[in-house]
Inverse folding.
């Protein structure tokens, strides 16, 4: 009788551990569907990037578990630009970032003081939010906006 109680207790403990392990592994292994891609134009020489990069990163990183993917477009020099362009081509984002005429970017660049050449896609300190299915630009903003503004933009885009 004593052995039967011990075996029953061990059986119950084992089944509870197995069910907990299955529950934990199923919740941990599910990755969210990517809904929005954030392409961040950055550069080592960019004052806006230096001043707001850490704050921006702290605001945006929690959303990677909620359907946001982050892609860096490094505009520091010709080498990093070429590498970023190649990476964007592999991910089908090149046309959206470099070939799409994005209305209003020139004004944003003037306000931020970050014009780098005549190509509007070369503005650093700017994040472009892109629909992951259609590759259409959903929104574009400076990384220098307030925390609340950035969170509001991302929350609204992930609801679409």
């Amino acid at each position: 009788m004593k052995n039967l109680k011990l075996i029953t207790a061990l059986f119950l403990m084992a089944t509870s551990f197995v069910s907990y392990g299955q529950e934990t592994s199923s919740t941990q292994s599910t990755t969210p569907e990517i809904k929005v891609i954030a392409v961040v134009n950055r550069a080592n020489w960019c004052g806006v990037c230096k001043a707001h990069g850490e704050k921006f990163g702290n605001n945006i990183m929690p959303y990677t578990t909620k359907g946001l993917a982050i892609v860096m477009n490094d505009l520091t020099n010709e080498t990093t630009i070429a590498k970023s362009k190649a990476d964007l081509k592999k991910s089908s984002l090149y046309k959206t970032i470099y070939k799409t005429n994005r209305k209003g970017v020139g004004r944003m660049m003037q306000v931020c003081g970050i014009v780098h050449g005549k190509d509007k896609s070369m503005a650093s300190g700017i994040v472009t939010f892109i629909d992951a299915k259609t590759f259409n630009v959903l929104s574009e903003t400076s990384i220098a906006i307030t925390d609340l503004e950035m969170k509001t933009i991302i929350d609204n885009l992930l609801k679409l």
